[in-house]
Write a structure and sequence with these properties.
Elements lengths: L8 H12 L12 H8 L8 H12 L11
Length: about 70
Amino acid sequence: IASKHDRSVYQAVLAWLRQKSPCVLPIPGASQLETLENSMAGFDFVLSDEECEKLDQEFSKIGRASCRERV
């Protein structure tokens, strides 16, 4: 999924977290400007419903909440 968007896995997970709920805002930590810029790139694209569902399935295997669950 990440490579389809030319993003890192970390950036794709940030996008997925951002799409989980309007009440969820991931706050990545960064000690260097380059790390912050890399993290911010996870906020400027949108995953499709199918991609989000795929990540839901993968994360559900380790007990994480679904992208479609709303707070």
